[in-house]
Amino acid sequence: MSNEEIIHKLKPIITTYAPASAALENLNEESDFIKDLNINSANLVDIILDVEEAFGITIDNTSMEKMLTVKASIEVIKEKLSEK
Amino acid sequence: MIPKEIIAILPYSKPFLFVDDIESINEDGVTGSFTFNPELEFYKGHFKDHPITPGVILTETMAQIGLVSLGIFLLSAEEQTFKGHVAMTSTNVEFLRPVFPGEKVTIISEKIYFRFNKLKCKVMMQNQAGDKVCYGELAGMFIKNANG
To answer: CA of B107: how far to CAs of A48, B53, B83, B123, B148, in Å?
Structure first.
């Protein structure tokens, strides 16, 4: 799965939990969930649970802690998909 | 951890402790109760000459029993105790009936999930007649102290 395909799948998940903003409209690899998208840590947990379901993967605590940007999330998703 | 131990380490004290008893608790949920003392300060102002328990206090009571007590139980199963603090992160509650001074309420909470230190529960409050007072979904984060 390419980075673009992953972002395409991530965007609706993130949109569910992030307040509307220009940063959300322009979601890209550099987007930071907390700083740019105003997502709190509780909503970040919900995003990760939805990511698990959407991609059919299980995310452990260590990986979860890395997932603070779209770029880091793509890396974790790719890593978990390759382990399947 | 037994109910008495959980109540003892709850991070609240009077006049903001809204847990009297935990009747049952396991990894899927909790049932507990609280009686609203008519002397509680907020009855003087909510409402003037017409005391009714504020919805925010009912929500807080649901959270202390349904979310925080259960979270401490779940975390203590992993680590014997809980050192840290708690932050409520979302509430979505519907209110059906008023709770007057002196009423005893029972809170029944079912875990929806507990992942990455976020606990989300389906919580219901009923009065002594067994009527549903309010219900909804509450979530909170359990933040561990950096030094354990």
So the answer is: 29, 15, 25, 7, 31
Residues A28-49 pLDDT 10s? 999 999 999 999 999 999 999 9
The distance of B48 to chain A (nearest Cα, Å) reads 37
State whether B118 and A45 contact (CB < 8 Å): yes
Q: Which domains, ranges and CATH numbers included, belong to chain B?
A: 3-144 (3.10.129.10)
ipTM computed for the complex: 0.88
**Looking at domain A3-83, what is its CATH homologous superfamily?**
ACP-like (1.10.1200.10)
pTM of the model: 0.92
CA distances from B42 to A4, A38, A58, B97, B127 (A): 55, 34, 46, 18, 20
